[in-house]
């Protein structure tokens, strides 16, 4: 099976992430998209991170009615911070019959030179890159990359956490069940 891996902190998952996952699942030969919840992104501070099990739960309730979307806690058991090459090596060994591609925004794609073992990643895996405003990418010819013009909601989890703190509405920005769960538990307050 061809799996698109969508890595992120998902702190919290929002409609912008879901639009991308659904678009990839329906407009590429990827059969399933797996949200890989990263306990700790190597390039981000840990300060405002909600516990990873709570973030995973929010992802699960966001996608529970969509059979093409899955969530995985694979990085919870691996060494931290979570380097994508290590996760992929583990997944490829665990699921040898699967083909894994990496789903990335063009902003993250431009950051790739900062990633661990990027040459091996580019040699062994395909990328699915969706354009984000201000970050036009033209992947090098030797990289296996599909560039998509997916619909976008330009919002970040950082902005959403600020909204929650300031009691600004997040209705229609967060899936309703996610919004209710965050509110009930007073996350990000
Ligand atoms: N609004 C959005 N639309 C599409 N992709 C997004 C959007 N926001 C983030 N992404 C991408 O989704 C992936 C996971 O995002 P992640 O949760 O780590 O970031 P974020 O929402 O920008 O969070 P933060 O603001 O906490 O840094 C990354 O590849 C990121 O580039
Ligand atoms: O492997 C790396 O060196 C590496 C460095 C930075 C980010 N990543 C992965 O990319 C994901 C998205 O990162 P970001 O910064 O675009 O939100 C993150 O959750 C990690 O899985 C991976």
TrEMBL record:
GO MF terms, alphabetically ordered: nucleotidyltransferase activity
InterPro entries linked: Cyt_trans-like (IPR004821), NadD/NMNAT (IPR005248), Rossmann-like_a/b/a_fold (IPR014729)
Domain Cytidyltransferase-like as annotated: residue spans: 5-162
Pathway: Cofactor biosynthesis; NAD(+) biosynthesis; deamido-NAD(+) from nicotinate D-ribonucleotide: step 1/1
Organism domain of life: Bacteria
Enzyme Commission code: 2.7.7.18
Pfam families xrefs: CTP_transf_like
Key words, A-Z: ATP-binding, NAD, Nucleotide-binding, Nucleotidyltransferase, Pyridine nucleotide biosynthesis, Transferase
Broad EC category: transferase
Reaction catalyzed: nicotinate beta-D-ribonucleotide + ATP + H(+) = deamido-NAD(+) + diphosphate
UniProt xrefs under HAMAP family: NaMN_adenylyltr
Function: Catalyzes the reversible adenylation of nicotinate mononucleotide (NaMN) to nicotinic acid adenine dinucleotide (NaAD).
Family per similarity comment: Belongs to the NadD family.
NCBIfam families, A to Z: cyt_tran_rel, nicotinate (nicotinamide) nucleotide adenylyltransferase
Protein name: Probable nicotinate-nucleotide adenylyltransferase
Lineage, opening ranks: Bacteria, Pseudomonadati, Bacteroidota, Chitinophagia, Chitinophagales
